[in-house]
Structures are given as C-alpha cells and as structure tokens.
Amino acid sequence: MGVRGWWQLRLALARHRWTWYAAVAGFLLGVLGLASTPIGSLPALLSGVAGVLLSVILLAPEWWALRRGRVRLVRRRGVPTPPLTAPERLVRLPTDHREVAWCRPDVDEALPQAGATYGWSNKRHELPRRLAAHAGPILTARVHRRRTFNGRLVRQDDDLTPSLLRHGEVRLSRTDYYTLLCSNYLFGWRVLDRATGATHLDGSRLPFAEDGRLLPLSQSRLANVIGVSTLALTTDRRLVLGWQQPEAEAATGGLAAPAGSGSVDLIDIHDRPPGARFTDFIRSAMRRELMEESHLAPHQLGNTRVLGYFRWLNRGGKPEYVGLTELAVSSDDLVGTEVQLVETPYVQGLTHDCPLDLELLRREPDSLDCLPEDVAVAASMPLYMCLRALGALLRRDDDFFRRLSRPATVG
Length: 411
Fold this sequence. Notes:
This protein is of the alpha+beta class and 411 residues long. It contains 14 helices and 15 strands.
C-alpha cells in the first residue's frame, strides 16, 4: 500500500489497538533491560526474561488479531430503499437497477441561480458508538494490502432545498477517507464477528432512520463526504471519459465515469474560503478533479456548470454533485493525454472522443441511448446522473441546447 499508506493506517489503528502497541513497547523495554543487565546479576536477568516472555504472551494474540482481523465483511443481498414524500424521487441506473440515487428535481432547477454561501467548521463529527466500536477491525479488513491513504476530505452537514439555495448557508466540516470507509462505504456489507459469526452491524441500515426514511444530512453521523463529477465536452462535442480500476473502492471495476469524478478535498476549502458562493465552491472542486484525473491544464478548460444534486444510496446516502465543463480544445488535441501517475490506482485509462447524441439526450434524458452501446453498458452511476441532469437542462433551455448542438470554434 506504500509507505505513506502503511504509516497512516498504523496511526489510525493506534486509537483502536493500543494494547498491541503497549505489548510491543513492553517487549522492547524488556529486551533493552536484558541487554543492559550486568553479567552475574541473576535476579535482574530473570526479571528481564520474565518481562520479555510476558510481553510475547500479550503480543501474540494481539498480533494475530491485527493480521487476521476480528471481523469479516459479507455482501448483503438487495438494496433497501426509503419511503418518499413529494418532490423526492428514486433514480435507478438503467443497466444495473441495484444502483439507486435519491434526488429532488426542484433542487436541480434551483442550482443555476443559487445564491447560498457556505460555512466551514474544523470540528469532526464522531461516528455512532455502535460503528466506532468496530472501526479498528473494519479498517483493518478494508485497507490491509490496498493502495490507499487517509486523505483529508470535506463533509456536507445540510441537505439542499430550494429555500436554502436561494439565501441560506450550507454547512461543511472536516472528515477523512478512513472514516468514509468505515461508514458510508459499509453500505451493502454486513460486519460479522469472525469467531462467532454474529452480526455486529448491517451497513445498509446506517443511512436510514428507524422508520426506514433516509436520514437528513443534518441528522446523519456518517462521513457524508461530498462527491463531484463533471462531464468534459470537447469543442467538437465529444465526451472525455475515465475508465475506473477494478479495485477502486468507490465503484465496480471497469466502469465508465466522467473524466472529472472524485471527492471534495480539504485543499478546495483553502482555495476558496468560507463566505463564497456554494456553487462556486463546488464548481472549483469539479475543475480540480477534472485536471487531476485527466491531466488537463487550466487553459484547456472553459466554463463549468453545476447541473444537479443527489444522494447515492449505494454509498450510504453521501451527497453528490454533477456538472458540465466545456473544454477549449478538440478531442484531436487530447490524443496522447494520459492519466496522471498519482491517479492510476483509481483510473486505468481515458477515452477522449466518446460521441454524444445531444438531440436524443434531450428527448430521453432518463435513457443511456445517447451513448455508444459499449459505453452505455459500462456507464457508472455518476456518468448516468451527469447525463440525466444535462438532458433535463437541454429540455428547459432551448438557447443552451442550440448553442451546445453547434460545434464550437476555437481561434
């Protein structure tokens, strides 16, 4: 997993496995005591040997538990869905109905004119006790031998409503990737005791209240990291897509995703301080993700629009934003552009010239027929939700549809 990931995992586990580290410290002190024992001092020698043996006795089961893990994760069949009240909707991925998004069309329509700002808190939200009690073993099971590190991410503390978007403040706070692994990304998994087989918790119940409804973000204590995805459209109206690695934690392997798709990072807060417009903040995060994953330069990016918002049930109801970035270059100009080295654990390759039928997308925004068949069958939920939001906008805005339908000229 690399030196950075190994060190971050050990630091995270130290909070949950202090007895293991205490046993290691005791063993090292015992060895040091033996090495410094004067020759012929039998009581001191016996005392040192006893200390080392006691540490080994304490260390062995802890070491075994750390290596083997005290829990195992088992896939859960079926995806529970919440009851809805107007104007809430559930959207299913056409090629995989197990992938489900919760959304509100009135929120999507309010996003383009949103004047809401955002507030920032450096305080971390603690996980629910029933989840925090098993966070160490869960982390061991999920991160061991993976190429990953504990990135610092941004949590959303409020659900969006048209009223909040008009004149409110969206609250954000700090979290990290390991907390995301131990909360939202447990959806679809049951945590079982390895020794007894008993169920510690069902991750698919975490985003819901007792009555089955989806908890508002203000009441949820999961990581709820903000996800962002933006379609990249070239001047000759071709999509730039990223093909995800099979081992990517946040997606089924080999799926096609928008070229800019990822999580809002703490660096996005530093680049755009609190008090700025919330949609400008989200737009900035989308552009950063697009440049990082697709190896694009700032001058190659045109305007970015925030098109929609949803909560991804398969990711524990985490908030997701979708958008469109019009590039200032053609698909031919991007030939030879490769995925950045730091992104290769997550993105295995790029497609620079995916055709997009805008007329068909406008007519049938809930369909994937606007894409070539080989891309449509591999479409990820973020790609589908991006296209769906773009299709809805094309329906609402005739001028925008006419402009986007004409290949742009770059001079």
